[in-house]
Write a structure and sequence with these properties.
about 300 residues; alpha/beta; Rossmann fold; 2 domains; 5-stranded parallel β-sheet; 4-stranded parallel β-sheet; 11 helices
């Protein structure tokens, strides 16, 4: 398989296992490129990409922008705050105004689930979902899975636990789909109040006990509590959450194997993970950041290639 089966990257659910493997193989090549003294390639020299961010983002936005520039694309950055969106302009009108400037691809983060999918049906551009509400965050899941593959050699049969605020996490949902398609086993761990009712229907194991999860897993992906998405209290206090679900060196010492620790960021040090764990040899958090650029380069390159061949 030399090209993706899909015209957009809206969610992991739309990708075949072969698509994921193709993205990983392409990312391998780009990872080699970004570690050279000259880090740019002319692959997307004739492509213009607009980054539409309707929600705050630091790491994802920077990662996409760097990936685009490494591929020599022309880049437009759009932030909803201070734009005509605040004056009542619709999403489609905003996108069409940008596309009138001869833009080929749109990378979009939006607070509403399904926004990227909606846009893909209504405008003539390749859409990359950079996170839509609590729904999906496909490039984060791809870079997480790629980082596990790099560290452990393969994803097949690897046991991955995702810990924390599963209910509000688009990262968790995309990770579940991606890891399962790549042959890993998945467990979800967190307070009952932060576990979606449909969790077990995803074909994953569910536990409410962190020590049990750590005893089972090869890899632990620690999520932050998304206070900005919460309308009510889901647990009594941050201190109580940390006592039950905060990952410490002491918890890791109870495991009978070397566990790989991940975090999609931003880290709330001392809440879901201690600094000692985040900065330890167990952690591949900074590898995830580096791999994010290579994986996003691969996604953009493969989608642009598909668009040019149509």
């Amino acid at each position: 398989m030399s090209q993706l089966s899909t015209d957009h990257l809206l969610g992991i659910r739309d990708l075949a296992p072969e698509d994921i493997e193709l993205i990983f193989q392409t990312a391998d090549q780009f990872k080699e490129v970004i570690n050279r003294p000259i880090k740019k390639v002319p692959s997307l020299r004739d492509i213009t990409i607009a980054n539409l961010f309707f929600e705050n983002s630091t790491r994802t936005k920077l990662s996409f922008e760097l990936a685009e520039k490494r591929l020599s694309a022309d880049v437009l950055n759009f932030s909803a705050s201070g734009s005509s969106v605040s004056k009542g302009e619709t999403l489609i009108d905003t996108a069409n105004n940008i596309l009138a400037m001869k833009v080929d691809m749109i990378v979009m983060r939006h607070p509403l689930p399904g926004a990227a999918s909606f846009l893909s049906r209504n405008v003539d551009a390749t859409i990359v979902n950079a996170g839509d509400g609590t729904h999906e965050h496909p490039t984060q899941a791809l870079l997480d899975a790629y980082s596990i593959r790099e560290k452990r050699g393969s994803l097949k049969g690897i046991k991955v636990v995702i810990v924390g605020d599963i209910l509000h996490s688009r990262v968790a949902l995309s990770n579940v789909f991606c890891l399962q398609k790549a042959g890993a086993e998945v467990m979800l761990c967190g307070p009952r109040t932060l576990m979606p009712k449909f969790a077990e229907s995803l074909g994953v194991k569910v536990t409410y006990n962190l020590k049990e999860a750590i005893a089972w897993c090869d890899v632990a992906n620690m999520l932050r509590v998304q206070n900005e998405r919460m309308q009510t209290g889901y647990f009594p206090s941050v201190r109580e959450y940390t006592m039950q679900y905060g990952l410490t060196m002491d918890t890791l010492k109870h495991a009978d194997r070397d566990i790989t620790i991940m975090h999609p960021g931003p880290i709330n040090r001392g809440v879901e993970i201690t600094s000692e764990v985040a900065d330890s040899d167990y952690s591949i958090i900074l590898n995830q950041v580096e791999n994010g650029v290579a994986v996003r380069m691969a996604v953009l390159y493969l989608l642009a290639q598909k668009r040019q061949e149509q």
